[in-house]
Write a structure and sequence with these properties.
Blueprint lengths: L15 H6 L9 E4 L5 E4 L4 E3 L11 E3 L9 H20 L7 H21 L3 H6 L1 H9 L13
Antiparallel strand pairs: 1-2, 3-4
Helix pairs in contact: 2-3
């Protein structure tokens, strides 16, 4: 079983933790997936990340951030970037142990649910996650708990 990691050679960005602790979002050309030969397959700025080399038996596997794929809508573009940034933080936090593509897909589902609520509340995703009042509103809007089961943990 292949799991997501920086690349097939095991090279990690040593400065990633320091940049994230400063609140810096990766640049749009920051690599997020690699082909088996080590060439970059997807970059942070893509709204579709190709994780095929990390999937079981090499079947096609993608992470989509389509809800915010709007060129002239700044709040949606910002939420798209925040969603990708938080997923990248989840990936980096799990190192050296890696996450499966299925786990990452579940995390994206949860982050998109949160981002939709943030968009409707006219706040950032980070603000939603850091403000208990906003999180209670999100949870209250999900009486069956179905959205919350996908929250990253």
């Amino acid at each position: 079983m292949n799991k997501i990691s920086k690349n097939s050679k095991g090279n990690y960005d040593a400065n990633f933790d320091e940049r994230m602790s400063l609140g810096e979002v990766p640049s749009d050309d920051y690599p997020v997936s690699y082909n088996p030969d080590g060439t970059v397959l997807s970059v942070f700025g893509d709204t579709k990340w190709d994780l095929t080399p990390y999937s079981y038996f090499g079947e096609a596997a993608f992470l989509y951030f389509p809800y915010w794929d709007a060129e002239n809508d700044n709040p949606k573009k910002a939420l798209n970037a925040e969603t990708r940034w938080l997923l990248q933080l989840i990936i980096e936090d799990r190192k050296p142990k890696s996450l499966t593509v299925g786990t990452l897909q579940n995390n994206v589902t949860g982050l998109i649910s949160l981002a939709k609520h943030a968009l409707n509340s006219k706040i950032s995703l980070v603000r939603l996650l850091s403000d208990w009042t906003h999180m209670r509103e999100y949870i209250a809007g999900d009486p069956g708990g179905k959205r919350c089961m996908f929250l990253p943990h």
